[in-house]
Amino acid sequence: MVTLPGVIVEELSDDDKKAANAAVVHGSKLKEMEEHDIDQLLVNHEEIVFARTSPQQKLIIVEAFQRAGQIVAVTGDGVNDSPALKKADIGIAMGIAGSDVSKEAADMILLDDNFASIVTGVEEGRLIFDNLKKSIAYTLTSNIPEISPFLFFIILSIPLPLGTVTILFIDLGTDLWPAISLAYEKAESDIMKRKPRDPLGDRLVNERLISVSYGQIGMIQATAGFFTYFVIMAENGFRPTKLIGLRKDWDDTEYDSVEDSYGQQWSYSDRKKKKVPTATLR
User: Which residues of 104-123 are buried (b: 16+ CB within 10 A; e: fewer)?
Assistant: First the structure.
């Protein structure tokens, strides 16, 4: 046991070392440790201070944390920090005191050399990522309600529910500007409380976004659009069962005897006048 003024330092057993929440590892000690020992060190201790480490040891530390599934951020300003900055998930260099080599290796440069700017930068990056996902998800939702009318038009031979001009108006009027406005959304209240996203699974466009955009919202919009289409056609005399197989006669310019569900005959000009354009609900 070593006694210092006001401080008592005790040598711990191996079991006590594993039970400790924090640890301090000197560079000379780290040099003697194997890869397995470093991994166990990270598992057993929540807080670790590495002191007097060499550039190669800094790189070893970064790789050890990445093997443990952690997202690693490294700050540095010298040439010796470049390998660790390059290997880290987020390399942060000092803008004022940092060397040119460290700036080239880094992903983020602190122009004011203030560590508080790291939090601001991370928050801004998460906000941009979230808003891009919102814009992409909103844009993708219109694909199903725009494609399904043409599929029904081909498969069931019904009169075309949604024309190409109507689709153009939908894309320019209800897709473009709202999608752009989503890029200016403010940050969510819990944006800095989330864990770092998984770089392998949580991409900008992932399975969850596709399933929500196509399988849920897109299907709801398509259902609402077809409901509107069938209601309007029924109000004009054509019930849903009558529409199936009607496409050929409906689009024939020479055929003036298309009969609706009530026995009324429609000429080509009457069909075009009475056909009310239906659009997918947004």
Answer: ebbebbbeeeeeebeeebbe
Provide the edge-to-edge strand list for the sheet that holds 108-110: 73-76, 90-94, 108-110
Which residues contact residue 118 at a Cβ distance below 8 angstroms, ignoring those fewer than 6 apart? Answer: 73, 75, 92, 108, 110
The amino acid at 51: A
The mean predicted confidence, pLDDT, of the chain is 86
Q: Are 98 and 112 in contact (CB under 8 A)?
A: no
Q: What is the DSSP letter of 79?
A: G
CB 164 within 8 A of CB 150: no
Q: pLDDT of 126-178, one tens digit each? A: 999 999 999 999 999 989 999 999 999 999 999 988 888 888 888 888 788 88
Locate tokens 């897709």: which residue? 175
Token duo for residue 218: 């897109």
Q: Which amino acid is at 177?
A: W
Task: Summarize pLDDT for 30-71 with one digit per residue, the tens.
Answer: 988 999 999 999 988 888 999 999 999 999 999 999 999 899
254, 282, 258, 256: which is closest to 159 by C-alpha?
258
Region of poorest pLDDT, from 1-15, 57-71, 198-212: 1-15
Q: How far apart, in Å, are the Cα atoms of 262 and each of 235, 267, 272?
A: 11, 15, 19
Amino acid identity at 66? Q
What stretch of H or E contains 67? helix 55-67
Half-sphere exposure of residue 275, counting CA atoms within 13 Å on the CB side? 18
| Cα–Cα distance for residue pair 11/1, rounded to 1 Å | 6
